Amino acid sequence: MTVVELKNLDKVFWPKEGFTKGDVVSYYERISSLILPYLRNRPMVLVRHPNGIKGASFFQKNVASIHLPSFVRTVKIRARSTGRDVHYVVCNNKATLLYLVNLGCIEMHVWSSRTRILHCPDYMVIDLDPGGNSFAEVAAVARETRKVIAAAGGTSLVKTSGKRGIHVYVPLRPVYHFDEVRSAARLVAELVHHRLPKLTSISPRLNKRRNRVYLDCARNGFGQTTAAPYSLRAVAKATVSTPLDWREVTAACSPARYHLRSTMRRIRMKGDIWDVVIRKPNSLRKLEASLRAMVTAARKSAARRN
Question: Cα 111 from chain centroid?
Answer without folding.
Answer: 9
